[in-house]
Amino acid sequence: MDAYGSADAARALELKHLRCLVAIVDTGGFTDAAHELGTSQAAVSRTLAALEDLLGVRLLHRTSRSITPTPAGVQVLARARVLLGGADALVHEAATGRTRLHLGHAWSAFGRHTTEFQRRWHEQHPETELRLIRHNTPTGGLAEGLCDLAVIRTPLDAMPWAHALIGHETRCVAMASDDPWARRRGIRLAEIPTRTLAIDRRTGTTTLDLWPADRQPAVEYTQDIDDWLAAIATGRRIGLTPQATAAQYRRDGITYRPLRDADPVPVHLIWRTRDPHPATHTAIALASELYRGER
């Protein structure tokens, strides 16, 4: 099927095709699927045949005793369940007036305020379901379309998003719990270059710009928060991170100590300039209130 054929098939595809496939597999047969869908067995057969014609692949192995998905059918069935779930949720939201707010973050949401944010949101805004999504990208999933707004702690330079500053977080040093520094009450920024620093170059808040060019530490780059913590737990690496990470990622074998003389990290909420979620500014107000309360 060429690109034009694929586009035509996508336009011709209907939810009834997907519901039919799912019903056949879940009930184990055409007769029971017809009963569940409130139609005839012949209509179920025609709908499945139409779906297979649209996609150009066979979706089910049919014998006198069983019906099982083909390899292509397994893939289509998985996508069908996702699409049908989204469609059902859309209908439910439209019918009940209930909406969801998807809040993205790369590492640690609101840190120590995360649980309180969730509790207050549930109490004050029960009509809008809150869902937190962790996605290890600079926009916490916003650019990927996974959330309505996102918490970020990375620079905003050239970002095409609307944004609001909700607070600041102090920095701390993460180290193995048996590290000699773990016995101290705090670490100075000038001491860090004596160690090897683990940095997440995609979403981390630490850059080598914190030090003069001739006093920068050795660096090991990591892929995400779990990779970062694993590198530090070995005792051969340390990390710098906002206090939110220490609050949300307590791990056996990892100790956090304050970094005494570094500027705090600004925390922003970002969202799409066009068509923002109706609850965007309500979320900003609540998050800002929680951060103000720690002063």
How is this fold's topology laid out?
Layout: H1 3-12, H2 15-27, H3 30-37, H4 41-55, E1 60-62, E2 67-69, H5 71-96, E3 99-105, H6 114-124, E4 128-134, E5 149-152, E6 162-169, E7 171-176, E8 196-200, E9 218-222, H7 225-233, E10 239-242, H8 243-248, E11 254-258, E12 265-271, H9 280-292
Parallel strand pairs: 3-4, 3-5, 8-9
Antiparallel strand pairs: 1-2, 5-12, 6-12, 7-10, 7-11
The CATH superfamily of the largest domain is Periplasmic binding protein-like II
Poorly predicted regions are none
Tell how many strands the DSSP assignment holds. Answer: 12
Oligomer: single chain
Strand content: 15-25%
CATH class identity of the largest domain: Alpha Beta
| CATH architecture field of the largest domain | 3-Layer(aba) Sandwich
Rounded average pLDDT: 89
Question: What's the Cα radius of gyration?
Answer: 26 Å
Structural class, from helix and strand content? alpha/beta
Q: What is the percent of helical residues?
A: 25-40%
